[in-house]
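REQUEST ID: PR-0412
SUBMITTED BY: lab tech R.K.
PRIORITY: routine
TASK: structure prediction, single protein chain
INPUT:
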Amino acid sequence: MDDKPAKRHLKRNGLPQKICAACGRPFAWRRKWARDWENVRYCSDRCKRARGRGSVPESAPLRP
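STATUS: complete
OUTPUT:
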């Protein structure tokens, strides 16, 4: 028998989403944002830093 616990798979389709204010891409709720979800506006630290510059550089990787 296998004593390893079953892997948990998180279903992302049930999580709330927002649109990033800097890059315009959708991003899903994360546990670390649980207490502050109402105030979260950016999908990443990179977008948060780029907010004053107008836009994220075109070389920004696409988020899944």
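NOTES: The chain has a mean pLDDT of 79.
REVIEWED BY: pending
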